[in-house]
Specification:
heterodimer, A: about 475 residues, alpha+beta, elongated, B: about 90 residues, Histone, subunit A, two-stranded antiparallel ribbon, about 35% helix
């Protein structure tokens, strides 16, 4: 099946990733650990833009940038440099942002996403380094604001801006791209995506080959999908009514789920880029081989290996490799019990229970899930009891074996099930007659009785088989 | 030639208000600066790579090691406009 893309939708994304796992900012030695701190406590003359201060680049930030570039299958430039992007806005006290312009550190890459019609390639135009601006906070509501507060703790943090080609054909593909990007970045261990502002998205979207519209102020991946759905609908409606789409920047209003035009002079920015005289050029090409050695096995490669090594189906292998932590958890479990059984329990059952509670894999231990799987494969408890144990551990804590004992989950002996089966048949002659008369459903009633008599410790499938066998006698 | 309109545009980019009379005067002054720099055009630069940096060095790095930041009072020492540890400005959209 080939996706037709009936509206000719083209989406390109610009994602700002904050490398918050670095110890220091991009051009100064201020700590990056400011998220729970008082305003303006993680600043120095450099990130405050005081006259006479000089930036010096963080070597590790350059390494991280190369690592990201390589993971996105980009080529890394021979030599790069920084530029000043001039704009007068108090989120950057210097009056310009130090960024890369004509020689981005990485470019010409691609990643594979799960598209509308199977695997889909998304081109990466470029990935460049720049500094994060400070944070503005409006006092009161935005239209009746009495002033703006500025906190420069974030100012000078290392950002990598990853710009994609307009290769996505639906909001769903945009979402998948973001998920894939997040997955790769998590594998690289260059940032903590859960911290506020760690990944910020701007979207460019056009329909029917028309002009593109930029949508800013998107605060989450879900928000990106919603903003794009709205914007595509708006453009289509506008064209249907005889209107024309012109290039513009729009603001996503998360609360109302709409995009609003920002018709200000701000759009006709004249940034007057020029080379940053305070930073010398970076020759990075010779660092590439060494950084390449530090690249971990990435999601796609891990998925392939899981399929080959553990004999997993594509869906299981994919589900288990999206998050690096889940992949590592699974491999530990798979080293102790049958890998295919482990895949079912980790990917289908445990992950389902975790998602339902909005928890991560950290909420469960390898030891506990191994214990549960061994109890089931050893025919000591039923699968249903296994699920009950997982739920109990997550909701109330405790160890699997203790829960088994407390709740009396050990499967009952065969003769007790046999007795229960016999009793159920003797006590319910009508149901027996109905079943023998062809009413299959009456069997369920009898199974229920057996479960009741054994307090749920019998295996339902086993009880059913025993009932049928007995009734056939 | 720098026109009056260009002066106003650059003024706007820097958020500086420039009135009619001033823009004429600035255009004239800026043009004389530009003329002066124009002398550099007399040098033949055919086949010469542009120079961005005077010092011929690359790769000046620092280690990713934290040093102490400034105390908040010192950060805010140069402003009268502050609130709860923040710089305070008139409302900005």
């Amino acid at each position: 099946m080939v996706y037709e893309n009936p509206d000719g939708v083209k989406i390109g994304l610009e994602v700002h990733v904050q490398l918050n796992k670095l110890n220091t900012k991009l051009f100064c030695c201020c700590s990056t650990d400011y998220h729970d701190s008082e305003p303006n406590t993680h600043v120095c003359p450099v990130c405050l833009g005081l006259p006479g201060s000089l930036p010096v680049i963080n070597e590790k930030a350059v390494e991280f940038a190369i690592k990201i570039g390589l993971a996105l299958n980009c080529s890394i430039v021979e030599q790069t440099q920084f530029h000043r992007k001039n704009y007068y806005y108090p989120d950057l006290p210097k009056g310009f942002q130090t960024t890369q312009y004509d020689y981005p550190i990485a470019g010409n890459g691609k990643i594979i996403i799960e598209g509308e019609d199977g695997e889909h390639l998304v081109g990466i135009t470029r990935a460049h380094m720049e500094e994060d601006p400070g944070r503005l906070q409006h006092i009161g509501s935005i239209d009746r604001s009495k002033g703006t507060l500025i906190n420069y703790n974030r100012s000078g943090m290392t950002l990598i801006e990853i710009v994609s080609e307009p290769d996505m054909r639906s909001p769903k593909e945009a979402r998948r791209y973001l998920d894939k990007l997040r997955s790769i970045l998590d594998y690289l261990d260059v940032f903590d995506g859960d911290l506020e502002g760690a990944m910020r998205v701007d979207a460019n979207v056009s329909v029917f080959g028309g002009e593109r519209v930029e949508v800013k102020n998107i605060s989450s991946f879900k928000g990106a999908e919603r903003a794009l759905l709205y914007e595509i609908m708006r453009q289509k409606n506008h064209i249907r009514r005889g209107g024309e789409i012109t290039m513009e920047t729009r603001h996503f209003d998360e609360a109302r789920g709409v995009t609003i035009s920002m018709r200000t002079k701000e759009e006709e920015h004249d940034y007057r880029y020029f080379p940053e005289p305070d930073l010398v050029p970076l020759r990075v090409a010779d660092r590439v081989p060494k950084v390449r050695e530090t690249l971990p096995e990435l999601p796609d490669a891990k998925k392939e290996r899981f399929m080959k090594e553990y004999g997993l189906a594509d869906t299981h292998a994919r589900a288990l490799t999206t998050e690096i932590k889940v992949a590592e958890f699974y491999e530990e479990v798979a080293s102790k019990v049958d890998p295919k059984t482990a895949a079912v329990w980790v990917s289908d059952i445990l992950k389902g229970e975790l998602n339902y509670r909005d928890l991560t894999i950290d909420a469960f231990t390898v030891e506990d899930i191994v214990a549960i799987i061994e109890l089931i494969t050893g025919n000591k408890i039923t699968e249903q009891s296994g699920i009950e144990i997982i739920r109990t551990v997550l909701d109330h804590g405790g160890r699997p074996m203790d829960i088994v004992n407390e709740k009396g989950l050990l499967k009952v002996e065969d003769d007790i099930v046999a007795t229960a089966v016999e009793e159920a048949i003797n006590e319910n002659p009508e149901a027996v007659a109905d079943y023998l008369g062809g009413k299959e459903k009456s069997l369920n009633f009898l199974v229920g009785k057996v479960m009741q008599k054994t307090k749920g410790r019998a295996d339902a499938r086993e009880a059913r088989e025993k009932l049928i066998a007995k009734l056939k006698e | 030639m720098i026109t009056k309109e260009e002066v106003e545009h650059v003024g706007w980019l820097a958020r500086i208000e420039i009135d009619e009379k001033e823009s004429d005067a600035y255009a004239e002054k800026l043009n004389s600066v530009l003329d002066y720099f124009g002398q550099l055009d007399e040098v033949d630069t055919e086949g010469v790579e542009p120079t961005y940096h005077v010092a011929d060095i690359v790769n000046v790095f620092r280690k990713d090691e934290v040093t102490e930041s400034m105390p908040q009072e010192e950060v805010l020492a140069n402003t009268e406009h502050k609130q709860e540890g923040n710089f305070k400005t008139p409302k900005i959209m």
